[in-house]
Design a protein that fits this description.
By secondary structure, the protein is mainly alpha-helical. The chain is built from seven helices and no strands. The longest helix is centred in the middle third of the chain and has 33 residues.
Length: about 210
């Protein structure tokens, strides 16, 4: 069906964009931390903020908002696959919590070094990249089998409405800041507006969503 093909191609484009964001962040952090050993508080906060942003962005994907609910309705037996996908989300969330917990502690008590931070980021990216691959190989194939007829048209309508809302929201909004790692002695606030802040507030740890 042409409608199903349109939807799955649209989702593949969305997947590719998420994958590029994950790989770009991973590469940037490796390059920036390559010759560094000790981390400062601003750098831990920065890493935690970007990991949180990338993680939370996953919940606004069309796969999560429209395709998975349609699959749940059409095939209750798909819980096994959906639980596997959710497990990969939990693995990524654990990486975020490691960074945020260290950022919430006093910097002189933190034992998370640059090499360890890179390993945490690698684990985060690996979990979400594995989820994207599993969605494309297994979830999309399952959708073709269990979603039929008018359900595809309903999803297509949701996609169009979603795109219209997203385009409207982008109007007048500032672009997302590029990756700019704070230098030693800087603060998390410096990342946002280029000014110094006396007491940056550590982000709160995220909690897994079912």
């Amino acid at each position: 069906m042409l409608t199903a093909t349109y939807i799955l191609v649209s989702l593949s484009v969305e997947q590719a964009s998420i994958r590029m964001s994950l790989l770009a962040f991973q590469k940037y952090m490796h390059v920036q931390l390559r010759h560094q050993s000790q981390l400062n508080l601003a750098q831990l906060q920065y890493a935690g903020d970007w990991l949180s942003r990338l993680y939370q962005g996953g919940y606004w994907r069309k796969v999560e908002m429209y395709l998975i609910p349609a699959i749940r309705q059409a095939a209750p037996h798909a819980d096994g696959l959906l639980n596997e996908l959710n497990g990969l989300n939990h693995a990524a969330l654990e990486s975020i919590n490691v960074v945020q917990q260290r950022a919430g502690a006093a910097i002189d008590q933190s034992e998370l070094q640059a090499e360890q931070l890179c390993a945490v980021i690698d684990a985060f990216c690996a979990a979400l990249l594995q989820r994207l691959e599993k969605e494309e190989r297994e979830l999309f194939a399952l959708a073709r089998k269990v979603i039929v007829g008018e359900a595809w048209f309903a999803i297509a309508y949701q996609f169009l409405a979603h795109d219209a809302r997203a385009q409207e929201a982008r109007r007048g909004k500032a672009q997302v800041l590029p990756f700019v790692l704070p230098a030693a002695g800087g603060s998390a606030e410096t990342i946002a507006n280029g000014t110094e802040s006396a007491s940056p507030v550590p982000p709160q740890p995220l909690r897994a969503q079912a």
